[in-house]
Amino acid sequence: MNIQEVQELTSVHNVLVAEDKPMLRESLQQMLGYFFAQVDAAADGQEALDQPAENSYDIVLTDLRMPRMSVSQLLQEIR
Fold first, then answer.
1. Tell me: the pLDDT tens digits for 45-75?
2. Domains and CATH numbers, the chain
3. DSSP 58-73
């Protein structure tokens, strides 16, 4: 599979990245932006939940340890 085929498969999906380390969060957002339709980022679980309701995510990438909300709480709220 070449890069164009990967982009065709992923370009219709939206991603949310929840990561408390700014450099890692920005790097992931930039890298994933080459492949996915929309990539939003949040500094912690609460900020991830505060994303506008009209944003629908197909994939959520999250840090295991973040301030203000545990990953298990975040996943329960997302469901």
1. 999 988 877 788 999 999 888 888 888 888 8
2. 3-78 (3.40.50.2300)
3. SEEEE-SS-SSS-HHH
